[in-house]
Specification:
Number of helices: 4
Distance between the termini: 41 Å
Organism: Sanguibacter biliveldensis
Shape: globular
CATH class: Alpha Beta
Number of domains: 1
Number of strands: 4
Structural class: alpha+beta
Order of helices and strands: HEHEEHEH
CATH architecture: 2-Layer Sandwich
Protein name: Asp23/Gls24 family envelope stress response protein
Largest sheet: 4 strands, mixed
CATH superfamily: Cation efflux protein, cytoplasmic domain
Helix content: 40-55%
Length: about 110
């Protein structure tokens, strides 16, 4: 079981990497609160993954910019990947909130590329 600050950071980093590996995900988006906290520097993607441990379960919240696929399908895929990673780390998944804040069209270079 992953515990402590270092363990939590490792889980957040792995979740961010897995999310960004999905072909429909462009980026992890900050919330307004995150932007204000990191006003002078752009936050790393793992800093944008919120984990909350409550009574033995881990709740996750992440906000995305997506492209190409239907936003709903991308969100479902991301939710499943997050749940699988939590289980792999010996953690009990609780609520996994995946919000799509931006949907951008696929550019012609990405379609042919």
């Amino acid at each position: 079981m992953t515990t402590g600050r270092a363990g939590t950071d490792a889980v957040r980093r792995e979740i961010a990497q897995a999310i960004l590996a999905d072909p429909g995900v462009l980026r992890v988006e900050p919330t307004l609160a995150t932007v204000v906290r990191s006003w002078s520097t752009a936050p790393d993607p793992e800093d944008l993954v919120r984990l909350t441990l409550t009574g033995g379960t881990v709740d996750v919240a992440v906000h995305l910019a997506v492209q190409g696929d239907e936003a709903r399908l991308v969100a479902h895929r991301v939710r499943e990947v997050v749940r699988e990673l939590l289980v792999e780390h010996g953690l009990e998944p609780g609520s996994v909130e995946v919000s799509v804040l931006t949907v951008e069209p696929v550019t012609s270079a990405e379609v042919t590329g």
